[in-house]
């Protein structure tokens, strides 16, 4: 027998011995089968959970959309009382003609009256200017001949800057800016209490020493 034949015979003998041992040892055969099967089947990738992924939150409260410029809240000043509205008026350095005429009428006709009575006089002047039956501006209403006795030669007399005139200026600004409703709304005429007027008009208010009519 040649050397190569001897080597082949020894190898075959070793395999036979290994097979006999495997048959006699079940655990060894099972382990050998698992190794063979694991090598013969392709590996399947397992899903990997990523704990860093953010969870979507549902039903979260939404913030209101920003308002457009034309939807912003009105920032006009609201006053609690007529006194507060009058007190808030700053006296301008330069007094224009309309303000001067209105303040002059308030001063000469109602400087001793409550603020509501002074505002009611201003209301009469404004209502006349809008009526279409009288001149169209404050000054032309005040200076209309035969209407206000304090007017001299078609002009409103100059008044010194005393406390009562400053109040009249403030009331005039309230009236011209329409920041407070007059209690004599709609009034077109007024006269002092105790005066017997020769007309039959609807009375709308009686304030202080004046009665107001439309």
TrEMBL record:
A Pfam family the protein falls into: Hydrolase_2
Gene Ontology MF annotations: hydrolase activity
Keyword Hydrolase found: yes
Entries under InterPro entries matching the protein: Cell_wall_hydrolase_SleB (IPR011105), SleB_dom1 (IPR042047)
UniProt key word Ligase: no
Domain of life: Bacteria
Keywords linked to the UniProt accession: Hydrolase
Domain annotation Cell wall hydrolase SleB: ranges: 112-213
Listed name of the protein: Cell wall hydrolase
């Amino acid at each position: 027998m040649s050397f190569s034949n001897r080597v082949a015979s020894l190898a075959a003998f070793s395999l036979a011995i290994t097979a006999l041992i495997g048959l006699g040892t079940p655990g060894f055969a099972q382990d050998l089968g698992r190794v063979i099967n694991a090598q013969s089947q392709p590996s399947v990738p397992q899903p990997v959970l990523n704990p860093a992924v953010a969870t979507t939150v549902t039903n979260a409260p939404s913030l209101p959309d920003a308002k457009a410029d034309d939807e912003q809240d009105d920032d006009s000043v609201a006053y609690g009382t007529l006194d507060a509205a009058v007190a808030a008026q700053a006296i301008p350095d330069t007094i224009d003609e309309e303000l001067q005429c209105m303040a002059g009428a308030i001063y000469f006709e109602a400087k001793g009256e409550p603020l509501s009575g002074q505002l009611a006089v201003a209301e009469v002047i404004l209502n006349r200017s809008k009526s279409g039956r009288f001149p169209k501006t404050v000054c032309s209403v005040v200076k209309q001949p035969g209407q206000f006795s304090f007017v001299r030669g078609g002009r409103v007399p100059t008044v010194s800057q005393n406390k009562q005139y400053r109040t009249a200026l403030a009331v005039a600004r309230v009236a011209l800016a329409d920041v407070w409703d007059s209690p004599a709304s709609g009034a077109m005429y007024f006269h002092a209490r105790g005066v017997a007027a020769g007309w039959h008009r609807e009375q709308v208010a009686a304030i202080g020493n004046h009665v107001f009519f439309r």
